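Q: What residues go here?
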């Protein structure tokens, strides 16, 4: 199984080990320990597939629309080279790109649509909340009032949370302000060497919440997580990104609901598309 994001490999690896206890499973990503032992099941970032040629009997590409795989033709060729010539390949994603759908239609691939989660509950639907002049507030070293109220409620109710920011600069500007509410709150981004540990600490209830960029939009499952998006109208938050971010909420069978709020200073078409797509999926039985 290949995926563009290291975080997805780190998330899936212990789950696969738990389910497939009688076979050897390897996780391959940048910085992982080398292991020469043969593995029947390999979880790898797509970059790691440059190491293989005609090696795999079955290839599954998870989060097939994610950056950088969806833009990088070299990575796409590496995936095809790594599997055996006659090996089947499956592309898995909640938000297939137009390119992937066109290819599926043109080449007449098989297609499966799963609208419901394993626990059978509806997907949490994002709500829209205005947050005017939020950038100016952070520049004045203040958390916007509505956002601060939301965070305080999460802390009071002992609910872990993600707050997604459109830029690293704005997120880092805000981090120290949130730490005044609770010292365990931290921030993560793609170049953060401690990202893996910070996410694990949140999962283990050692942190109240994380501020993050879109790096954590996929593949992360935290029990009872609540999610806010700051500046949801920013172009970085495409409808696909907002659907994936919303998908962090309600994944656990014990906590199948939760809050997903898009804080904005103007509702965009991408926000509407994301919400409408989630509502559409909830109409399927």
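A:
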């Amino acid at each position: 199984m290949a995926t563009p994001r290291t975080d997805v490999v780190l998330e899936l690896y212990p789950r696969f080990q738990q389910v497939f206890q009688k076979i050897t499973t390897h996780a391959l990503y940048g910085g992982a320990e080398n292991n020469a032992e043969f593995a029947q099941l390999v979880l790898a970032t797509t970059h790691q597939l440059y190491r293989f040629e005609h090696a795999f009997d079955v290839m599954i590409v998870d989060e097939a629309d994610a950056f950088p795989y969806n833009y990088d033709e070299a990575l796409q060729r590496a995936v095809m080279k790594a599997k055996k010539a006659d090996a089947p390949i499956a592309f898995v994603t909640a938000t297939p790109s137009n390119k992937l759908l066109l290819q599926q239609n043109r080449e007449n691939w098989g297609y499966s649509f799963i609208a419901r989660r394993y626990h059978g509950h509806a997907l949490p639907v994002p709500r829209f909340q205005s947050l005017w002049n939020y950038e100016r507030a952070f520049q004045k070293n203040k958390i916007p009032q509505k956002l601060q109220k939301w965070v305080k409620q999460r802390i009071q109710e002992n609910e872990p949370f993600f707050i997604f920011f459109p830029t690293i600069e704005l997120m880092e500007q805000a981090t120290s302000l949130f730490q005044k509410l609770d010292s365990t709150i931290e921030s993560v981004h793609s170049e953060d060497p401690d990202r893996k540990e910070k996410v694990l600490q949140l999962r283990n209830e050692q942190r109240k919440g994380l501020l993050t960029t879109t790096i954590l939009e996929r593949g992360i499952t935290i029990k009872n997580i609540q999610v806010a998006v700051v500046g949801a109208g920013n172009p970085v938050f495409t409808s696909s990104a907002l659907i994936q971010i919303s998908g962090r909420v309600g994944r656990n069978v014990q906590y199948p609901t939760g809050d997903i709020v898009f804080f904005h200073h103007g509702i965009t078409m991408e926000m509407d598309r994301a919400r409408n797509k989630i509502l559409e999926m909830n109409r399927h039985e």
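A: Context that may help when evaluating the design: The longest helix spans residues 269-283. Residues 104 and 110 are 8 Å apart (CA to CA).
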